[in-house]
């Protein structure tokens, strides 16, 4: 359901079946006037994905109209709250409509653009009055989440800060000399007459502390230091190989991890060490062309290297953010790269890969890495990044060249994740009867198909193929018929908003354990995604768009 295509009759019909309101819609009776908690909902919708407020219907009475509901007074109070009690003011569209013979107030609340977030309740101040929508409730944002949203208004400068206690002796001489040499070669006029020390200070590799002593900056140490983790122990990289498609999987020998290591050092060394670990764990296919043998790894190295470089460059280096590491996890069907801090400023998932579009969180670090060479002794050559806003574009291009699906990016307030999936093997599609069977469940979501002869209660295969018609990859999730997975997919296809596992249990008449197992299988195949906390109440589910 989009915020601007809300249909009251359709939604209430669904809400009555579910017995509850949903993530994108808040229904209140408002029999005694505008609820005080409405300010929290306005904040939550504005900071998340927008939503709709419906006042004048009693949820406990089956979403029936409230007798004697004073629609005009409530509408005026809501409009006043939007304008006077929220910061920034909420530009909601408030109207009075008739539903089953009763007046109802319907307000459409748009999501705020990144540069205006967070929206908060004025009387509680920003760090105590900012909310996000999770499930069908409003959750107060933590101070860390509020600070991350504020980065949409102005770029942070944590990477420019002096590292107390650090000195010139913390730099890697080889990397530092290569950096200076590259800068002088690229911009001879700009740095003519400058000493090396002046050049480093001008480029924010170093800065003066409160006593005037020149010390490395965080950006300088992360790019050119010998061991930055001396000062930032968790500003490192973890690499884990999982024997399956979920962290709950174990190998036949009972191992949870096939490989696991923590990678430290400056960014160029961490990237190179990660690539060494990757080569040790990926399968390589060979093809003879003429007199030469061409080896092709499961994942294009360019895609993985660029994704990891982006994660290390754009991650959150605030004091709180430095408590978390960048995580690279390799599953049987994908590689996931998770970095602290969501997308910054005006960047959105939809704009990733646009040529020339770049909103780096760490501008000084990005500029330094443009001229930072890879360390000797590794396969990587050249500079760590181009700093031209082409990193994600290169990821997509290299995956497409390898006939693999496009990367899947998920942005959260506190983290950003990108997943690189293996090709679904178009050659294997015939084996599984792709396109030959009937649609599972007698209808339901397009792209969920039953192969001939399929049986059993599980997802059989996810097939990815390139479409010349649309100019992109599409994944067809092949399901066996009459399974809980098919029922969940059909239910979520009709639901206009994400739903909880409790709603699925009630609607499908299945136990909690059955629904949980089915949801996990669907999430492993990237057909369903979970929003909100990973455990406990508040988690809701929707089909991956």
Overview of the structural elements:
It is a single chain. With about 550 residues, the chain is an alpha+beta fold. The chain has a six-stranded mixed β-sheet with strand order 14-13-17-18-20-19, covered by helices on one side. Strands 1-2-7-6 form a four-stranded mixed β-sheet. The protein has a three-stranded mixed β-sheet with strand order 21-23-22, with helices on one face. The longest helix is centred in the middle third of the chain and has 15 residues, at about 265-280. It has 14 helices and 25 strands. Helices cover about 30% and strands about 20% of the residues. It is globular. The chain has helices spanning about 10-20, 40-45, 70-85, 145-150, 175-185, 195-200, 220-225, 265-280, 300-315, 365-370, 390-400, 485-495, 500-510, 510-525, and strands at about 25-30, 50-55, 55-60, 65, 85, 95-100, 100-110, 120, 130-135, 135-140, 205-210, 215, 235-240, 260-265, 285-290, 290-295, 325-330, 335-340, 410, 415-420, 450, 460-465, 470-480, 530, 540-545. Helix 7 (about 220-225) packs parallel to helix 10 (about 365-370).
